[in-house]
């Protein structure tokens, strides 16, 4: 089975829930197993949340979402305008650095949750509502490989790739 969706959404919080629900339904319609369909929705909504939260939107700007599922690989790409020199862009880079420098994705996720639970005395955790868990959640909970590219004209592209299975795929056994 294959699925390919491309659409633009307004950078509004209400659109994220609608997009997540649509992604789950579309993935299910192509035969994706329940957990895989949920993962596609989770990844799409987390990446859209980051785009809306950290993007630069002047006028009729929108967020681009592309989902392509083929050959048991799902790839979700979100592109939006961002100030590449901003604190927000630095937070995206820091999240990816956490993933690449930790022994595992799980270790990176646990370390960040621990920092939120028990922040260092000089940290700014608690001062802001930004947990920094979105990218880590995508990588850990959806078992995704996450990449980040800054494009021309102040756009950022965040891609998550993950394996997916259809409802009728044979179970793997150890």
Helix percentage range: 40-55%
Global morphology: globular
End-to-end span in angstroms?
Answer: 25 Å
Mean pLDDT metric: 86
Order of helices and strands: EHHEEHHHEE
CATH superfamily: Histidine kinase-like ATPase, C-terminal domain
Beta-strand segment tally: 5
Strands of the widest sheet, in order across it, are 1-2-3-5-4
CATH class: Alpha Beta
How many domains would you count in the coordinates?
Answer: 1
- Uncertain runs are 125-129, 169-174
Profile the largest sheet: 5 strands, antiparallel
**CATH topology term:** Heat Shock Protein 90
Beta-strand fraction estimate: 15-25%
Specify the CATH architecture: 2-Layer Sandwich
* Radius of gyration computed on alpha carbons: 17 Å
The helix tally amounts to 5
Structural class: alpha+beta
Description:
This protein has five helices and five strands. It has helices spanning 13-29, 34-54, 87-101, 105-117, 134-141; strands at residues 3-9, 63-70, 73-81, 145-151, 155-163. A five-stranded antiparallel sheet has the order 1-2-3-5-4, with helices on one face. Helices cover 43% and strands 23% of the residues. The two termini are 25 Å apart. The chain has one domain (3-163): Heat Shock Protein 90. The longest helix is centred in the first third of the chain and has 21 residues, at 34-54. Residues 125-129 and 169-174 have low confidence and may be disordered. By secondary structure, it is an alpha+beta fold. Helix 1 runs antiparallel to helix 2, helix 2 runs antiparallel to helix 5 and helix 4 packs across helix 5.
């Amino acid at each position: 089975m294959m699925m390919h969706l491309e659409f633009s959404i307004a950078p509004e919080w209400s659109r994220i829930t609608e997009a997540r629900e649509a992604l789950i339904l579309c993935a299910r319609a192509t035969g994706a197993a329940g957990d895989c369909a949920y993962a596609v929705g989770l990844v799409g909504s987390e990446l859209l949340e980051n785009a809306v939260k950290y993007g630069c939107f002047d006028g009729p700007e929108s967020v681009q979402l592309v989902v392509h599922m083929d050959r048991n690989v799902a790839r979700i790409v979100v592109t939006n305008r961002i100030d590449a020199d901003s604190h927000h862009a630095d937070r995206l880079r820091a999240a990816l650095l956490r993933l690449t420098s930790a022994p595992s994705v799980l270790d990176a996720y646990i370390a960040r949750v621990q920092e939120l639970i028990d922040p260092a005395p000089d940290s700014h955790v608690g001062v802001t509502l930004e947990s920094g868990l979105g990218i880590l959640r995508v990588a850990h909970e959806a078992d995704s490989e996450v990449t980040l590219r800054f494009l021309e004209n102040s756009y950022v592209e965040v891609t998550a790739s993950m394996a997916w299975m259809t409802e009728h795929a044979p179970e793997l056994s150890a």
